[in-house]
UniProtKB/TrEMBL annotation:
Domain of life of the source: Eukaryota
Cofactors (names): FAD
Lineage: Eukaryota, Metazoa, Chordata, Craniata, Vertebrata
Keyword Iron: no
Molecular function via GO: flavin adenine dinucleotide binding
InterPro entries to which the protein is assigned, alphabetical: FAD/NAD-bd_sf, MnmG, MnmG-rel, MnmG_C, MnmG_C_subdom, MnmG_C_subdom_sf, MnmG_N
Protein source organism: Anabas testudineus
Pfam families, sorted: GIDA, SAM_GIDA_C
GO terms for cellular component: cytosol; mitochondrion
Any one biological process term the GO annotation gives: mitochondrial tRNA wobble uridine modification
Similarity comment: Belongs to the MnmG family.
Protein name in UniProt: tRNA uridine 5-carboxymethylaminomethyl modification enzyme C-terminal subdomain domain-containing protein
Gene it is expressed from: MTO1
Domain tRNA uridine 5-carboxymethylaminomethyl modification enzyme C-terminal subdomain: 549-621
Length: 627
């Protein structure tokens, strides 16, 4: 690694940096931070990424996988905006599969098992090759902010950061905080608690939490998550588990890639096994030794620990997936066995599963609790409403998962750069992308438990498909946002022009080719064999055209709803409205909700819990008269 990317691993004292003033500083080199830093630099900002350890940039803290149902859509969208994670997934993937195949292609979930080391290497080399981006190893101790504006009490402006070591300050017009599970992080194993953001890594300093809570007055909550023990592969009897092969033909995440790095025949399998009554017994017997599970802090509902699973559904057997950790790794990741009991009890527990009756643990599972900032305090550009130039992304906003972090990171990075370069913020609507759905859910509804993406969260999922993320986002990304390279732009234009030509041809048939293509047993290949001259040049798009034909009628029906929402989203509500003195008829409860959340548009107000249709009608009148 050191020889391969010599510049990346050079860690210099901050005082040796070529400049002491940046447009954007990104704090944290996880999934949010790496996308944020790369995106800010692509937009044109001089960017500094400060992270605790350079060699952990792009580390997969928990599961060695990317994508899945809802999450795969986010990866495709990040890729369409020229982000890193899709291409990194294609480089590091060792087992590709499309989940949810039994349902329609709109909700298919592209997913891959990853080689941890390859993933990190790809992200690190990409960052190293990004113009205008400097990477510094260091821990940020404090955010530098101005005193509140006397005319707007509580309103600050960020001016930079102060590093922990050497007390060195660096100035910036905007700062993106992506501290993940590290903000006031505590690790839990059995009855032991220690400060930490991830095993082997110190937590983010108390000074940072202090700035957010005390100086900026932000509402902070606490969440938790956990990870399973890593199992020595050779100690597992895989003949007692069910082999789960990958897809025969791996589907790349990135629109730029025709193939994945891993050849189809070199992919590694996963294995499926199940818990036994013995597992439940060990969990129950050891509850008094397990302080993480006794806490009230909310954990991820859709990725629960084995303790939560057996306590919630007693008597059931639960799936355990044994997943490879990498091409040369001798470890397996037992998905479904996240646990926080003492290490000796963890060993007893896993040995209750027949395939693991002689298994050895390399590193035990553990839990982590961390601070998050209630995300209703952010604008749809992911900027803290009360602090100019401060952006937050990733787990710090109450989400869970690499994909959710990457998506927010990219968008926060884009907007931080635009803020620093005096450009207006850009917003993604929930009608055009899953990233828009994610951000809108966070900033209007907030979170009470770690938020993860599902296709069911997107009202217009038939239009927001994995196959068309490029057409939805790349052109906007190039012209309105400024984060897309000319290489990707040109490829998207080629695809768009080709699709337009072939669609025109198909729609011009006497009996529309698109109508015919809707039928289950009709494929584009069949039509092309009838009209080889006109259609065979477009064979590379056969699957996209089939999907387009199937969903087109439904998408046409939804157009009106999409237009209505877009109209409401274009009606902005000033962030400094005094809702308590607004001269319209609103109940005290509604005024309180509006005052707390401060929705930035009428559309966002309609999605707030507790806001009645009557209240929206009053707000609409108000917005019309003032806008
Ligand atoms: P992270 O990937 O955590 O990255 C944060 C980065 O910020 C790190 O590089 C850190 O060094 C750096 N940093 C922090 N503070 C500072 C500072 N003051 N100065 C400089 N650098 C700083 N996700 C799931 O989807 N399901 C799960 O079950 C799950 N379980 C998990 C279990 C554990 C124990 C952990 C640790 C994570 C788990 N995750 C899980 C979460 C997953 O790792 C995150 O969702 C994802 O990594 C979030 O990305 P991020 O960029 O927000 O933060």
């Amino acid at each position: 690694m050191k020889q391969k990317y010599p510049n990346l691993l050079v860690s210099r004292p901050a005082s040796h940096l070529a400049r002491q003033q940046y447009d954007v500083i990104v704090v944290g080199g996880g999934h949010a931070g790496t996308e944020a830093a790369a995106a800010a630099a692509r937009v044109g900002a001089e960017t500094l990424l400060v992270t605790q350890k350079i060699h952990t940039i792009g580390a997969l803290s928990c599961n060695p996988s990317l994508g899945g149902v809802g999450k795969g859509q986010l990866v495709k969208e990040v890729d369409a905006l020229d982000g890193l994670c899709g291409r990194a997934g294609d480089w590091a993937g060792i087992h590709f599969s499309i989940l949810n195949r039994r349902k329609g292609p709109a909700v298919w979930g592209p997913r891959a098992q990853l080689d941890r080391q390859r993933y990190r290497e790809f992200i690190q080399s990409e960052l190293l090759g990004t113009p205008r981006l400097t990477v510094l190893e260091g821990s940020v101790e404090e955010l530098l902010v101005t005193e509140p504006n006397p005319e707007k009490p509580g309103h600050h402006r960020v001016t930079g950061i102060r590093l922990a070591n050497g007390n060195h300050s660096i100035s910036a017009s905007s700062v993106v905080l992506t501290t993940g599970t590290f903000l006031s992080g505590s690790l839990f194993m059995g009855q032991t608690t220690s400060p930490g953001g991830r095993i082997g890594d110190a937590p983010s300093s108390a000074g940072l939490s202090h700035t957010l809570r005390e100086r900026l007055g932000l509402r902070i909550g606490r969440l938790r998550t956990g990870t399973p023990p890593r199992i020595v592969k050779d100690s597992v009897d895989l003949s007692q588990a069910k082999l789960h092969p990958p897809d025969r033909h791996p589907t790349p995440f990135s629109f730029l890639n025709k193939n994945t790095r891993c050849k189809p025949e070199d992919q590694l399998p996963c294995y499926l096994t199940f818990t036994t009554p013995g597992v439940e017994r060990v969990v129950r017997e050891s509850l008094h030794l397990n302080c993480h599970i006794q806490q009230d802090t909310k954990g991820p509902r859709y990725c629960p620990s084995i303790e939560s699973r057996v306590l919630r559904f007693p008597g059931r057997r639960h799936q355990v997936w044994l997943e490879p950790e990498g091409v040369t790794s001798d470890l397996l990741y037992p998905q479904g066995l996240s646990m926080t009991m003492p290490p000796d009890v963890q060993l007893r527990l896993i040995r209750e599963i027949p395939a693991m009756h002689r298994a050895e643990i390399r590193t035990p599972g553990y839990g982590v609790q961390y601070d998050f900032v209630c995300p209703t305090q952010l604008s749809p550009a992911l900027q803290v409403k009360s602090t100019q130039g401060l952006f937050l992304a990733g787990q710090i906003n109450g989400t869970t998962g690499y994909e959710e972090a990457a998506a927010q990171g990219l968008w926060a990075g884009v907007n931080a750069a635009r803020w620093a370069l005096s450009m207006s913020p850009v917003i993604l609507s929930r009608t055009e992308s899953y990233i828009g759905v994610l951000i809108d859910d966070l900033v209007t509804r907030g979170v009470t438990e770690p938020y993860r993406m599902f296709t069911s969260r997107a009202e217009f999922r038939t239009a927001l498909r994995p196959d068309n993320a490029d057409l939805r986002l790349t052109l906007k990304g190039r012209y309105k946002v400024g984060c897309v390279s000319s290489l990707r732009y040109q490829e998207t234009v080629r695809v768009k022009d080709n699709l337009q030509e072939v669609l025109e041809f198909l729609c011009a048939f006497f009996l529309s080719g698109m109508d015919v293509l809707q039928y289950n047993d009709v494929s584009f290949e069949m039509l092309a064999s009838v009209f080889p001259e006109c259609l065979s040049p477009y064979m590379e798009f056969s699957q996209r055209l089939k999907i387009e034909a199937v969903y087109r009628p439904l998408c046409d029906l939804q157009k009106k709803d999409i237009e209505r929402i877009q109209k409401e989203e274009n009606m902005s509500l000033p962030l400094d409205i005094d809702y308590f003195s607004l001269p319209v008829s609103l109940s005290q409860e509604v005024r309180e909700i509006l005052d707390r959340v401060r929705p930035s548009t009428l559309g966002a107000a309609t999605r707030l819990e507790g806001i009645t249709p009557a209240a929206i009608a009053h707000l609409l009148n108000y917005a019309r008269h003032t806008g």
